[in-house]
Amino acid sequence: MDLAQLWFWIVGALFIGYFILDGFDFGVGISLPFLGKNDSERRVLINTIGPVWDLNETWVIVAGACLFAAFPEWYATLFAGFYLPLFLILIALILRGVSFEYRHQRKHESWKRSFDTMIFIGSVIPALLWGVAFANVVRGVPLNEHFDYVGGFWNLLNPYALLGGVTTLLLFFLSGLYFILLKTDGELHARAQKLAVKVGIITIVVAASFLVWTIIMSEFKLATIICSAIAAVALIGAVALNYLRKEGLSFAAVAVTVAAAVLTLFVTLFPNVMPSTIDPATNSLTIENASSSTYTLEFMSWVAVIALPLILLYQGWTYWVFRKRITHATIEAAAH
Length: 336
Fold this sequence. Notes:
With 336 residues, the chain is mainly α. The protein is built from 14 helices and 2 strands, in the order ααααααααααβαβααα. This is Cytochrome d ubiquinol oxidase subunit II.
């Protein structure tokens, strides 16, 4: 395996980390109108991710920076062609972050409700559009001989990509519900468990449809079949474990599901990074023609060897410090 291929898998691993970590963040935000019956319950939900959401979000910055440095052609084509959906994701993330910081600045119910709505919208849009974007990358898009995207916005809203978007939306929602089960108790916990059962069944059906379509599109590539099977088994296991009240195991299983689903897309894509639907043989971006120089990749590899373990240790320590459950009592105590 050469350095370009290694960095293809490193970029994939970074996006896996981002979708697992920020995925349950999105899921908690999506759950607000379904589980938060009053301001106290919504504050409990928001505080489950309060100490970690911004740290989770930095993974997409790292993934994007590595994509830019390791595969500048891929980065340029992706961000130019997918400008509008990526712009909408950015706006949604900004609204979501602002809402977390400002909803508690005034006590008026209408003020808090407005920011709660923005948290919900700011969670739904990225959860949906990330799936749409990655599904389009795997499916292939119209690229000309200069590797420029020439398809327009509506070309991105094809059935396969939309199914991919709904799949990530449901997976993140389910992941967020399982995280809520780890962090809450009482009536809120009970309602989250019941909702997770319903969402889990729907997610199995939708995700299975998307994975089967991906397998067919890959022409039954062995690696795609294996990764899809792992994702399917892990998802079914997560739903079953939640039904048995095994909260930690169900959250771990859905994390494996997200990881295996993203890996499915990357192994299906390999050795391309952005296939063309116009002339796949000559117009497609591949690992070889999209990567940076060997010197750049060597330098990045040394930085990654030093920095990545430190990042993982710091994030692990953060989750350990804030591992306790959030209750109504702690919320009320913090308000005084």
